[in-house]
Write a structure and sequence with these properties.
There is one protein chain. The protein has 11 helices and 9 strands. Strands 1, 2, 3, 4, 5, 6, 7, 8 and 9 form a 9-stranded mixed beta sheet that branches. The longest helix has 22 residues. Strand 1, helix 2 and strand 2 form a beta-alpha-beta unit. The radius of gyration is 20 Å and the shape is globular. The chain is of the alpha/beta class. Helix content is 42%, strand content 19%. Bound molecules: D-malate. D-malate binds next to helix 2, helix 6 and helix 7. This is Tripartite-type tricarboxylate transporter, receptor component TctC.
């Protein structure tokens, strides 16, 4: 009897801590977002949700790790739209975002901010563009590697102003931000999840936000669009995944915990403070994420292939 009851207990998911894999370095926006939801998710599930950073190759090292993990619900994954751009950017990818995962749900939509080191010699976007054009061999732009949204935003910026800069890849915008604050690198486009507090504390200089409307968290900061870069818009969507074959009842339990976390008043307040949007609950579903991922792969694939950007 004792033996049977312990088997029954072990079968009830979750009976031990769950690992939430983050594909970029600790301290960066994906890591911050993951930690915001890990604690309330853990409370709902009755087990700790441990955040683990697996870095490298614009998030694809972690994606591969999760694709090959045991499909038992104990390894789950948060990733942004890099999940949709990877198949075009990395031609030798060892996973398929449409075949190797179960979808838990969309999580958050995050605006970006165009930043410079504090003492960068320009006081608004137009001055910054003029300086960058006149000093293009000297100005450095940080990003988190091919497939990172900081890379995507940086590419859009360079193409919008018609200049190619010296880009410096990091394992996440957490370490890139440390170097921006330390003055080792000049420019970085990064998500508000990480940047709002640093902008408010004056630790970096901000030139614009990447949404078409100003952000409630930074109401005095103009959009890139209103300063002359018409239509400059980047908003970063995120999803939570599990390896393919994770049982449906387990996926449903993780989804319920995710939905509860996103409706937790403290989480909602923190997200609002960072101008991070929580999607409508019909998107926080396996179907909502799958449909969005498919349409994003179809959207970005041709753009990336046409631009001829790839890793190998
Ligand atoms: C991070 O968490 O470091 C960022 O999301 C990386 C990126 O710019 O994509």
């Amino acid at each position: 009897l004792i033996g049977l009851s312990s088997i029954a207990q072990a079968d009830v998911f979750p009976s031990r801590p769950i690992t939430l894999v983050v594909p970029f370095a600790a301290g960066g926006p994906t890591d911050v977002a993951a930690r915001m939801i890990a604690i309330p998710m853990g409370k709902s599930l009755g087990q700790t949700v441990i955040v683990e950073n697996t870095v490298g190759a614009g998030g694809t090292v972690a994606t591969q790790r999760v694709a090959r993990a045991n499909p038992d619900g104990y390894t789950i994954f948060i990733h942004h739209m890099g999940m949709a751009t990877a198949p075009a950017l990395y031609r030798k990818l060892s996973f398929d975002p449409l075949k190797d995962f179960e979808y838990i749900g969309q999580v958050i939509d995050v605006p970006m901010t165009m930043l410079a080191r504090k003492d960068f010699p320009a006081n608004n976007l137009q001055e910054m563009i003029a300086y960058v054009k006149a000093n293009k061999d000297k100005v450095s732009l940080a990003n988190a590697g091919l497939g990172a949204v900081s890379h995507l935003c940086g590419m859009l910026f360079q193409s919008a102003i018609g200049v190619e800069l010296n880009t410096i890849p990091y394992k996440g915008t957490g370490p890139a931000m440390n170097d921006l604050m330390g003055g080792q690198v000049d420019l970085l486009c990064d998500q508000t999840t990480q940047t709002v507090p640093l902008v408010k504390e004056g630790r970096v200089k901000i030139y614009g936000v990447t949404t078409l409307k100003r952000l409630s968290a930074l109401p005095n900061v103009p959009t890139m669009d209103e300063q002359g870069l018409k239509g400059f818009e980047v908003k970063v969507w995120h999803g939570i995944y599990a390896p393919k074959g994770t049982p449906k009842p387990t996926v449903d339990k993780i989804n319920a915990a995710l939905r509860a976390a996103l409706q937790d008043p403290a989480v909602k307040q923190r997200m609002t403070d960072l101008s991070v949007e929580i999607p409508s609950m019909d998107k926080v579903t396996p179907q909502g994420l799958q449909t969005h991922l498919e349409s994003e792969i179809n959207k970005w694939g041709p753009v990336i292939r046409k631009a001829g950007i790839y890793a190998d």
